[in-house]
Amino acid sequence: MRCFLWLDAIFLDLVVLIIVITMKSIATQSKRSTKQKTAILEHLRSVKTHPSAETVYLALKKKMPQLSLGTVYRNLDVYAREGKSLLFEVKGQQRFDGDVSPHSHFACESCGGLQDLWFALPHAKIKKHLSRGASVKSIDVLIKGYCDTCAK
Fold it and tell me: Which of 2, 79, 16 is nearest to 43 (CA)?
């Protein structure tokens, strides 16, 4: 019986070790810079169309045939979480913006078009309505409606 307990303890130690090594590997991979990750971010920052992951994939696939759609999705998600890109959902589709400077957006609910809006937000008024001690990390404004083409 003691032999089995001893084997169980060794097995448990091995499982924990494997989990720790796997988690470190995943963390290293997400921080590691690759040609694909760099190309995804560079493309996102070079366009003003607020592309979907599929659009980014199709644009880069010509130059990088080994690129997978999953890689594009994962990296765009990481960039959005890290604040290197903005993420919006328009008509049920995720769209990304490589321009993280302060600006707002207009989304057409009919055609799904996204447009940058460059106007000053009333930060002082917004802060005035917050509870004491609250701090503003970011302000994201997404105005939804119908573009001039779809409104006709």
Answer: 79
Q: At what angle do helices 69-82 and 35-46 cross, to 10 degrees?
A: 70
Q: In sequence order, what are the residues at sequence separation of 6 or more whose Cβ sits closer than 8 angstroms to the Cβ of residue 96?
A: 44, 50, 51, 52, 53, 56, 76, 79, 80, 85, 86, 87, 88
Cα 75 to Cα 9, 30, 84, 140, distances in angstroms: 38, 8, 11, 21
Return all residues near 142 (Cβ < 8 A) that are at least 6 apart: 88, 104, 105, 106, 107
Strand 142-145 to 104-108 pairing: parallel
- DSSP letter at 56 equals H
Among 39-43, 84-88, 121-125, name the one with the lowest average pLDDT.
Answer: 121-125
Over residues 109-150, the pLDDT tens digits come to 999 999 999 988 777 788 788 888 888 777 788 999 999 999
- Alpha-carbon radius of gyration of the chain: 22
Best CA proximity match to 40, nearest among 78, 93, 94, 1: 78
> What are the φ and ψ backbone dihedral angles of 57, each rounded to 5 degrees?
-60, -50
